[in-house]
Design goal:
- The protein has 437 residues and is α/β, with parallel strands linked by helices.
- The protein folds into two domains: 137 residues, 2-Layer Sandwich (Nonspecific Lipid-transfer Protein, Chain A), CATH 3.30.1050; 284 residues, Rossmann fold (3-Layer(aba) Sandwich).
- Helix content is 47%, strand content 16%.
- It has 17 helices and eleven strands.
- Strand 6, helix 11 and strand 7 form a beta-alpha-beta unit.
- Helix 12 crosses helix 14.
- The protein is elongated.
- The chain starts with a helix and ends in a 16-residue tail after the last strand.
Length: 437
């Protein structure tokens, strides 16, 4: 036999062995998924790397496409949904269709209890899948793990992805918090303007008052309050990019003599200063429950007699307990984020000397807001990827879709809480009718 014939035969054997191994991996994956999905009645299908549908129907509203065996192997051996999320960020797993449906599947997995025989069977099938180090270990290093809450580094991690990135899916005012919808068909831009205005109305702003905006973002509320209600505003943020954007916008609108923005931590504010009105929108989620006494205590000290304070923030139903979803958010989205029950928030405010005047839940509004953001993000997919990369696009699509799902279910909530210093004359009208006139 010639050397050339021998080489060809060796390649044929290798090709045959590779095909057999690949087919064995596919069969193992199918068996594994059928067992894992036993009892599942949701709307998610699973398609494997060779195009075969392993679970569900071809017209399902959401299809999980597993491009490599490794994520399935890891899911069984490690039982860590964070691995699966990271595989998605790296392109090892794709999600086609409505990504929100995927979170029904996650709920199923978290509640699914496997017998010992099932676990042993799944373990054997997982070991038949080839191991391969996932690309996400290289793509996404160096994110998260900030120890000090509400530091400039942790805020920058989230908000300094880039103004151009946020501009692609936020409204024209650049409001990155829950909108306030009059009806489901209202545009996001209109609903965000309504949100800015209802906050100003709740604070009963009057010309000449001083308003402190803690965590002012890109300046939308500060500029709205100054332009429409004639107040003087001091806005503070820890994001360099937000600060520069807000200052430039104030200059363009001719409000820079009425509105001042600072790159400053709320803990570094002048304790001798006083404001007739104080507002914080979407910021106290970075504080941490242990820091609530300091946070609300500082605000109580800065509020002038007869003043009003409005805290707009996200809560959840059980407190910030460790699970895969929350570890994912702390690692990739909010390095220091921590949510609390609304009762914990109100108790902390009362402990700081506040009387609660009014509390309104905006939970359905945030689910609607997030879905508008996801739609805009998906519509601008190519521009987003060109700007920040595929992994960041996948990250924000996953994060906001999941958030919409949990707001819809009620696991996550959001409240606007209006308060005043305790033991003083009632500082608001007797009824709420002035808010809606």
């Amino acid at each position: 036999m010639s050397h050339s014939s021998s080489s060809n035969l060796t390649r044929d054997y290798r090709r045959h062995d590779g095909a057999v191994a690949a087919d064995a991996a596919t069969r193992a994956a199918q068996e594994l998924l059928r067992q894992v999905f036993s009892g599942y009645r949701g709307n998610v299908s699973v398609r494997l790397w060779d195009g075969r549908l392993a679970v569900g129907r071809s017209d399902a509203p959401c299809t999980l496409v597993v491009n490599r065996p490794q994520p399935l192997r890891d899911l069984v051996l490690h039982r860590n949904l964070l691995d699966l999320a990271e595989a998605h960020l790296a392109g090892e797993v794709e999600v086609e269709g409505n990504l929100e449906s995927l979170f029904d599947l996650i709920e199923f997995f978290e509640e699914r209890h496997f017998s010992l025989s099932e676990r042993l069977y799944l373990f054997r099938q997982a070991l038949k899948l080839p191991a391969h180090e996932g690309a996400w270990h290289h793509l996404l290093t160096g994110r998260g793990n900030h120890r000090n809450r509400n530091t400039r580094a942790s805020i920058s991690h989230h908000y300094d992805v880039g103004n151009d990135f946020y501009r692609l899916w936020l409204d024209p005012e650049m409001v990155y918090s829950c909108a306030y919808f009059a009806h489901p068909e209202q545009t996001l831009a209109h609903a965000q303007r309504d949100k800015l205005d209802i906050i100003c109305r709740k604070l009963r702003l009057e010309p000449g008052q001083r308003l402190l905006d803690i965590g002012c973002g890109w300046g939308a509320l500060a500029l709205w309050a100054a332009g429409h209600y004639g107040v003087r505003v001091h806005g503070i943020t820890l994001s360099e990019q937000q600060y520069r954007y807000a200052c430039e916008r104030a200059r363009q609108m001719g409000l820079d003599s009425q509105v001042s923005f600072e790159l400053r931590d709320y803990r570094d504010l002048d304790k001798a200063d006083r404001y007739e009105r104080i507002v914080s929108v979407g910021m106290f989620e970075h504080i941490g429950v242990r820091s609530f006494p300091e946070y609300f205590g500082i605000i109580a000290g800065l509020l002038a007699p007869g003043g009003l304070f409005l805290n707009h923030g996200i809560t959840n139903d059980v407190g910030w307990q460790p699970n895969d979803m929350r570890r994912f958010i702390n690692k990739y989205i909010f390095p220091d984020g921590e949510l609390a029950r609304v009762s914990t928030v109100i108790t902390s405010m009362e402990d700081a000397g506040f009387e609660i005047l009014d509390a309104e839940s905006l939970r359905p509004h945030y689910a609607m807001t997030l879905r508008r953001w996801v739609q805009a993000l998906e519509a601008n997919r190519e521009a987003v990827i060109k700007l920040v990369g595929e992994a960041t696009y996948r990250l924000w699509r996953l994060y906001m879709s999941g958030s919409a799902y949990y707001f819809d279910r009620g696991n996550t909530g959001i409240y606007q809480i209006l308060a005043a210093s305790r033991y003083q004359p009632w500082p608001a009208p007797l009824r709420r009718s002035d808010l809606y006139n």
